[in-house]
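User: I'm writing a short report section on ligand binding and want a predicted complex to refer to. Could you take this sequence and pyridoxal-5'-phosphate and write out the structure as tokens? A short remark afterwards would be nice.
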Amino acid sequence: MAGKVISQFVCFLGLLSLYLTFINMTSYFSPEYVRDIAPYQAGKPIAEVAREFGLNERDIIKLASNENPLGMAQSARQAVANMLQEGARYPDANGFELKAALSNMLDVPQNWLTLGNGSNDVLELAAHAFLQPGRSAMYSQYAFAVYALASQAVGAKAQVVPATTSLGHDLATMQSMLASSPADLLFIANPNNPTGTFIDGDVLYRFIAAVPKQTVVVLDEAYTEYLRAEQGYNSVAWVKEFANLLVVRTFSKAYGLAGLRLGYGVAQSGLTDLLNRVRQPFNANSMVLAAALAVLQDKSYLQQSATLNREQMGVYEQALSSLGLGFIPSSGNFVLVNVKKLGGGKAVFTALLQRGIIVRPVDNYGLTDYVRISIGLPEENRRCLSALAALVNEQSV
Ligand SMILES: *Cc1c(COP(=O)(O)O)cnc(C)c1O
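Assistant: Sure. The structure tokens for the complex follow:
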């Protein structure tokens, strides 16, 4: 009996010391600011839901990552197919052809362009080039999660600006915070994800003009192609005026290349040169360079994407209103829906998963009352909305 107790105690001590070693080693391996990072929570993949719920992949719809529901453009598929034979060669480290096309489209010199492995990469390049421990980044509460991740990964401090009551960027507060303690890097998402909130171009212009010149402004326009004509503004023209402005865009959303990864930054050559110093030489692969060049010239795909999104956003707005579910008016390809009366975001996320519909919980943003739903194809949206209607009905019986 005593022997057993002793051997159990020895075993416990062994496990305890292993555990302590592990704790010590992880703190040894990495600085505290890295250990403090809460990893990015991606949209749940279709294959994972199929495994977990015993569903057929074909019966699952994913409205969780703001992907283009039309799928990759035919023009882009053809371009990749043609490029496959070059797969054994390194890509063009400078992306000459694509930059030439972008330079032409945006009317800026090629040395104002930075290509990235998704625009996420460009955001990280900015964090690496302009931040370090002791420096600070500023962004809005409920702004895109990558701003916090990228800043934390390089040890910078974060200044988080409280959002407006409609969950958007509060530029007035941001301006006064900048005045009292200027940040080194300021992130603005327009439209913002996950809220879909939008800042008018003239308001944004006046704000950027008043930002201290030593603060680099990253204007993240991942959804700019979805803006309605009357919302349009020309931020690339502002880049010509402001040496501290970096406009960031992506091929992941309206251009339908999320899986291939390409984003780009537009800034004057001074900033661009700094970004280029911390960039991996082959961060944009040859398949995506070819695909992006093709889809950039495929005006009909882009137009179809924007039109479908606009129509279907209208469908959501109407249906959500008649279900009595609140939502934040969105300028993106997704909508943030208040599901508090259905038990909150996590509950609705799970209830929809069981029906084979993947949406995005946003509790990691502190938005526990909401789910974010990406605008899909008409039949996907119908299915999602009728599942929400069923949840509303269940609630009211
Ligand atoms: C989706 C998204 C991005 C990044 O997308 P990439 O696929 O890395 O280009 C950047 N910013 C915002 C606000 C986004 O929603």
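A remark for your report: The longest strand covers residues 245-250. The chain is about 45% helix and 15% strand.
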